[in-house]
């Protein structure tokens, strides 16, 4: 039998284990020390995102390792719907989450839809989208671990995205009160009733945790939406306190919230961090168009979550 302090166990210590305060402290310290102080630190200038140079790739990966996200600013201006897929593949992202609105290849065109059934769903309007992670209504077998957004055309005005690393949300909540995190790790914390997802696809009710730790990877996943309709939170004091905490955290100005206005050729590569979208205005001659790809794979999945202490 392994002793609790054996190297083998230490190597697998998971900072997201609420019973392992030492692993959490070490991870927390490393996380905060490396956290990007401004959105500029997340931006990587690249040439063609479809074929990154070694240095460009390394720069994006480095940001994803410390902040679960990177913003690239590339020179490709033409609309190539293969771009997200080709970019994702360079980071090991292959298993796309496809739905009927994403057309054949699993890449969605996010643009204002005047017809075709999409106009009923917020992503396909010019309205603001509240804080969420992508695919919060998905069943566990279709957890979205990473997501890419690529801007082909920006709006005439508005459409800014706010971003917060979900690991930082976890950290701030655990610092405040580990019992809040514990409540959101419960399997019945959050239910999205049966209806349609944000893409208009009929789906069954989805009940699950907000914070989930991958069984084999040990990575942290977050399933969240700030919407107040069509959502059922577990009605106990700890869950409701945790929900109020998140609401406050994301509703206030915070050094941990980064805001970016994507320009044509720019995009976001992320491990499905928390994000929102501001309302925007566009018109027939300048229709905002983003490509979006969602994956069951995580960027940098092979990297252990335990920071090197040496
Ligand atoms: Fe989203």
Spatial separation of the terminal alpha carbons: 27 Å
What's the pLDDT, averaged over the residues? Answer: 90
Bound compounds: fe (ii) ion
Compute the CA-based radius of gyration. Answer: 19 Å
Helix content: 10-25%
Strand count, sense and closure of the main sheet?
A: 6 strands, mixed
Strand content: 15-25%
Large-scale geometry: globular
Order of helices and strands: HHEHEHEEEEEHHEEEEEEEHEEEEE
Low-confidence stretches: 1-10, 303-310
Tally of alpha and pi helices: 7
Number of strands: 19
Read across the widest sheet, the strand sequence of neighbours is 1-2-16-5-19-3
- Structural class based on helices, strands and sheet pairing: alpha+beta
Protein described:
The chain has helices spanning 7-11, 21-34, 54-67, 83-89, 166-176, 178-184, 237-251, and strands at residues 43-45, 69-73, 107-110, 129-132, 146-153, 157-158, 161-164, 190-192, 195-196, 202-203, 206-208, 211-213, 220-222, 232-233, 258-260, 266-270, 274-277, 280-281, 289-295. It has 310 residues and is an alpha+beta fold. The chain contains seven helices and 19 strands. It is 24% helix and 22% strand. The structure holds fe (ii) ion (FE2). Fe (ii) ion (FE2) binds at residues 132, 134, 275.
Can you give keywords for this protein?
310 residues, alpha+beta, 6-stranded mixed β-sheet, 7 helices, 19 strands, 24% helix, disordered C terminus, binds fe (ii) ion
Structure at a glance:
With 310 residues, the chain is α+β, with helices and mostly antiparallel strands. The chain has helices at residues 7-11, 21-34, 54-67, 83-89, 166-176, 178-184, 237-251; strands at 43-45, 69-73, 107-110, 129-132, 146-153, 157-158, 161-164, 190-192, 195-196, 202-203, 206-208, 211-213, 220-222, 232-233, 258-260, 266-270, 274-277, 280-281, 289-295.
